[in-house]
Fold each of these.
Amino acid sequence: VNINFTSGREGMESAARQAGLKTLVTSREFMDKAKIEFPSNLRLIYIEDVIAQIGVGSRLFGLITALFAPVPLLEWLCGAARTTAPDDLATVIFSSGSTGTPKGVMLSHYNVISNVDAVGQVLPIGNKDRLLGILPLFHSFGYMSLWFAIKGGMAIVFHANPLEAAKIGELCEYQGVTFMIATPTFLQIYMRRCAPGQFGSIRIVFTGAEKLSPQLATAFEEKFGIRPIEGYGATECSPAITVSTLDSRQQGIYQVGSRRGFVGHPIPGVAVRIVDPDTFEPLPRQKPGMLLVRGANVMRGYLGRDDLTARVLRDGWYVTGDIALIDEDGFVKVTDRLSRFSKIGGEMIPHGKVEEALNEAAGASSQVFAVTGIPDEKKGESLAVLYTVEETRIPEILEKLAAKGLPNLFIPKKDRFLKVPAIPVLGTGKVDLRAIRQKAIEAFAPEKAG
């Protein structure tokens, strides 16, 4: 279990309790730098202490054994009491909690390795590539990236803090990084603080975990000369579901690998289906609905929560909770989460669409608006917006929304805008939807904040 150290002591204690953890391996240097206070009931093993006890003889024995010993012997030397089967539990990854309480997602060895193999079939990598390892290993995207690099023979350049843009730029330039996996939030930071030449060796920039806006993709391409491609996944799916890839160009052949505004095709071995959210009847191409996923990558279930597992696994299909559509060429477009809608005046208002319209009206290449729903005594719910632009620009931006023909219900009221220093994000780089809603409730509906 990779502990999410950004979830605070309460979140870490919850994960440790749910997973029955007794021992935690960590680093003193990391704990001091990150100022982390781990749960007191765990036995801590500091990696610095372990390294100091390993002599030259032990290192040579370990090297020779790793190179030449058969796998069963390696497992026995590492203390394995039995042979590991593909369907055995490999890890428990706790969800980010961006929309609610974190849940322990149980992934088997087969879940993880099938996902890695499938992604490797569509993303061209080799042993000359170098992956930038900046995504936290407690997040499914970062966890998969680790095994993806190892399976593909890539070297990995690790850095613990993805927010340290200056250091990231230096590492990419010095180490000759060729493959970057990051979230759009991190790309925004690198655009402001990294020089174009520092990313000169990178040939693939792959994003996930949150939506990549066309404005950000274009701005990144204009500065660094490489356009990010986008994928889509869920912790429950190990996590990759769809992947965009590079265009294939050969004599007489041109195959498009990505499409703007879409998250690619389903990876090999994974099936997707769009259904009506209420009846679960399949919907035709180009019609948005609930996205279902089926494949070897789908989790075993939620740790200790059979009730929640039964809610999201239906006849072998994982119910993502995301609204999406599939076009005529099989590309998938995710439009919003079902939970990111507000029902106002009898209509379902998608937060993501309003958010996108606001950012576009502001001419922003990064996310400067975040939309949520808050309780409303008259209408049941109303839209609220957190923003980081100058307050004087709000009337002009609202006028642009109206001029674009956006329905009145989609346009937030002027008195429901809250200026913040920065849009809240999680340690994974995803926007913290729960924190955004809490801030909005505290500002506009304080009686509901508790």
Amino acid sequence: MIRPFYWLTFVIAIGFCLEVQASNSNAPNVLLLIADDMACRDCGPYGNAEIRTPHLDRLAREGMTFDRAFTATAMCAPTRQQLYTGLFPVRNGAYPNHSKVKPGTHSIVHHLRDLGYRVGLIGKKHFGPKESFPFELLNAKTGPAFLTRDKSQPFCLVVASKSPHVPWTEGPNDYDPDRLTLPSWLVDTAEMRTAFSAYASEITAFDQEVGNWLDLLDEHQLAKNTLVVATSEQGPQMPGGKWTCYEYGLQVAFLARWPTTIAAGTRSSAMVQYVDFVPTIVEAAGGDPLQIDTGQAGSDSGGRDCDGRSFLKVLKGEADDHHAWVYGIHTTQGIKAGTPFPIRSIRGTRYKYIQNLLSDSRFHNTVIEHDAANYWKSWVREAASNPHAMKLVQRYLKRPAEEFYDLEDDPYELTNLATVPAHQTRIQEMKKRLREWMQQQNDMGVETENAAQVHRTQRR
């Protein structure tokens, strides 16, 4: 005989399950496609007509392209863990490379499972501990079956590609180095052209992966109610890209298609960050983004909620703006031992302010130490006789305490305006906002940089 108390508990539990199932009857599937070290400017939807990305182009035609989307850290482990947790890197603990979040941190896996989803991942992980990211781990064989395993249950599938991460060996390998247009912030040498063409080939390889998954959705008639997001993670392993707070590192491609909700062929200038992804998906799935428990205290509201906020209204075409400011952080500790070089940044719709907290040091990282393609060595060689090359080399190695850029007039951040009198009021305002953000995140600057090794772990 079932006692009344236990019977009541059972009925409440069944009722809750039915309520979740009912509330999610129209919840979208989610397919997140992540490149590995790809600048947004190096694909078709963002204006590159030379690198072939027909499937990303298709997503842009059929959905929304975000022109101002950003990660807060241009490194793999911190980028992925902020994307999955909705927390900025210092608050979640994963701010150096090869790092892991603080114990007890919750991720999108927890939040969507609570809403009745199954949540899987194929490909690159680079996160930890596993308790914070309990994805169902899949592979090339089990991944497609995951899509159709239970049509009554919505899914979220993350496909984490390894392209175009170095070494650049994948793709068609048919780009002519001499015919590609190099970005103006790269020194034009034969070695740089060879490296860039190999990188371009891997972008096309990633694009083909995107196409394969879009075909699977079509084949199984899942496209209509699947929110597809394709994003580029961060800039490539080139000077001014990965491991910096420049736009080539922090700005990401972000394409979203959801036929029942997102108008085709639209673009948004709303500023969004990777920490906004979790609350957006939770709201799209029928949950309350303000009730998310990240497992970590210290939010702007004083609770355990996300640092990001949902931009579902932007996706629906009901809002044109999102954040007024977005933030960046970089630590060299955890990449290579040596003199720390902590960087922080803040960006508005037009202006960008960067603080180099130990500017007396010389910047040093893997681009310089492990130059397998010899393109950095070719920069240094060219700098001996080319003033423009010398400027770019020095810009990378030796930076002032403050950098300030007008991104409308100088989108490639080549002219530092930090000492121009006309900008001092604006610089002081942005410096104050950056300091307030760091305080809210419990980011102590140099002290936080020196503690980076505590958060390191091995590659996963």
Amino acid sequence: MENFNILLCEPNGTLTMNASMYFKGDKDINLIACNSVKEFDDVISTTDIHGLIIDLDFQRCEEIAKKVTARGIKIILVSRLMEEEIKDLLQSIPHEICFYKPYSLVEIKAAIMKIMMEQPVTIRINPNVRALDERLSSIFIRSGIPPHIKGYTFLREAVKLSVIYPEMINSITKRLYPTIAEMYDTTPSKVERAIRHAIEVAWNRGKIENINAIFGIKIYNKGDKPTNGELIALVADKILIESM
């Protein structure tokens, strides 16, 4: 399979850093990130680009999109605004699909591959997402994790991604944390620390019996605090079993 050169134009340096980390070493996609029009001009003049991911907030976005389309380059748009707020703009900019923040790099890669292989691409909407959110909220609150801390949100997203893409649990540092970081405009290390803090809060609150009751067996004693990966995998596995 061909290795595709994909150019990411994103004004936020944190987001391009996260995306670069996520795609580093990817066997299908060579991601080239830039944060300015000058960087874009340098890359486009020296590199054979197959696809472009561009944020609507990127300077001269519409002009750039039309320029690369004339060269046969496929475009994925990214927007912080929802579709109804930018529908007129979307009609004027050539593109294959638009993703709305927060979005998953897993979904972005899937879209890139389909577009490059000239297959129909749509954003998959899981009708059970709300039910999954409610189930996870119940588990975490009963476990003693307060919903106002960042680790609660990151832990919920980590489990959701692991349920939808089970292979991600085996690549927490390289894929899971960077994906969540991209969705919430932060760094993978902050995601890891926030989740670890959430687990520490739960254990300090002493709700071990509640956690054991959730799973129906005695998994933990007071001193048996799980790692991030262990708790994510355990909850994801429970959700997967319940859905069978």
